[in-house]
Amino acid sequence: MADIAADAILSNAEMAAADRATIDSGAFSGPALMENAGAAVAAAALARFAGAARVHVLCGPGNNGGDGYVAARILAERGVVVCVYALKPPRPDSDAEQAARRWAGAVETLDALVPHAGDLVIDALFGAGFSGGLPDPVKTALVRCRDAGCPVLAVDLPSGVNGDTGEGEDAVQCAATVTFYRKRPGHLLFPGRTLCGTIETVDIDVRAAEPPRTWQNGPALWTLPRHRADTHKYARGAVAVLSGPRHGTGAARLSAMGAQRSGPGAATILGHPDALDIHAAHITSIMLRPLGDDPLAALQALKGLGAVVLGPGLGDFALARRLAPAILIETEAMLVLDADAITAFADDPSPLFEAARTGGAERLVLTPHAGEFARLFPDIADGDGGKLAKARQAADRSGGIVLFKGADTVVAAPDGRAAINANATAALATAGSGDVLAGIIAGLAAQSMPAFEAACAAAWLHGEAGRRAGSHAIAEDIADALPAVFGEIGG
Ligand SMILES: NC(=O)C1=CN([C@@H]2O[C@H](COP(=O)(O)OP(=O)(O)OC[C@H]3O[C@@H](n4cnc5c(N)ncnc54)[C@H](O)[C@@H]3O)[C@@H](O)[C@H]2O)[C@@H](O)CC1
Ligand SMILES: [K+]
């Protein structure tokens, strides 16, 4: 069977397929997997909430409920006081029905639930099979748990959280979640990520069905560029950043700083002479070049050009519209398109997307935040499916890598690969932070890192740099923290 790395993320359907493949292979039966899952939940309850006066187990009609009946039985066997409540009886002839039959105690309806502060609630109502909204009796029961202030341990997912999207407006805040085999997108996308509390992923002997196409972003996913001792600055690649006007130069400088600290041989800011005068007063090792009458020619004149950042503080939509397709078609550099240069294509993105396809394999990286995403892909933004699916659709349409920014940044490639970034802190939510990120992507891409890997690595490094820079960091601090982060992971 396919080998699935531990950082792989499976959709609800992929998880169900892995479950079926395991059962079909004869390695484990459905009831055996459920027994493993329920035992893991009971173990987590004992380890994390050892002092609970009573444990209330809330069971749904599917296999999530089945895990609950198993956990209830095991906890009672260990001498814990356990009360079980069901929304509905388990589906007939299911593994859950078998598990419920082995629970020897009473099963009450949800309206009998009266939790107290010292109790523990195990939420086994809905897991991977949930979609839509919670039924009213479940909402009422969860509100009672919240009002009692007792901890909730979720089985697989907090009930009400959609495993594919992370959406879940009626779910209750859980202290911990025990999930099985691999995480789902909903464990990492907000609000699901917060609602889960501490996530414990337990191996219950499920076997992979297919190779993964979604991962939790981290160093296992990419390899940072390395340079031999006898390299020289042009061999290390060069980054160009287009500057905004005289009173909007900061964003380009931040991008250039992010790029520089990611390891290329050189970073150059190109702009109009009055803007370059301002830059000259601030920077030393970043080079400055006039944009002149022919911006494309100015870019092509740069030795070893590997990547261009277009958009931060640019302010000139017409220039973005003219230059972006030209860079993709007339040069071999990677184009990182951010901020104003994304908005510039809001009315008609087709020349950009066509150029991305003409320019060849993944030469374009788009880095929209939610507002910019909605401008460039309004129908996708309004559609269903959550952030992961939306980023994938946008990548497919644009022919570029889409790095959909936010606290749960998603990076998606046109071939369907995607990564969810989970190391961002509030330090990144500060003006100019995104400009630094665009620069890091370009810095890595200029060193011949493929676009998807460069975007994933940049998002993760940016998160680590933000953590290191501390809660009151400004964008400059994030750029300044990068060398230490590279040092830590050996880049
Ligand atoms: N996939 C795996 O590898 C394993 C899964 N197990 C458990 O099985 C769970 C998945 O089981 P199921 O597929 O039976 O799914 P669930 O138990 O999550 O839910 C399915 C049931 O909920 C109902 N339902 C869904 N949305 C609803 C809504 N909005 N309102 C009312 N009812 C709704 C469905 O009609 C169905 O009866 C996992 O979350 C996990 O806890 C474990 O038992 C063992 C291994
Ligand atoms: K649950």
UniProtKB/TrEMBL annotation:
Binding site for K(+): N64, D123, S159
Cofactor: Mg(2+); K(+)
Key words of the record: ATP-binding, Isomerase, Lyase, Metal-binding, Multifunctional enzyme, NAD, NADP, Nucleotide-binding, Potassium
InterPro entries for the chain: Carbohydrate_kinase_pred_CS, CARKD, Nnr, Ribokinase-like, YjeF_N_dom, YjeF_N_dom_sf
Protein name according to UniProt: Bifunctional NAD(P)H-hydrate repair enzyme
Domain YjeF C-terminal as annotated: residue spans: 214-489
Biological source species: Roseitalea porphyridii
Domain YjeF N-terminal as annotated: residue spans: 15-212
Stored Pfam families: Carb_kinase, YjeF_N
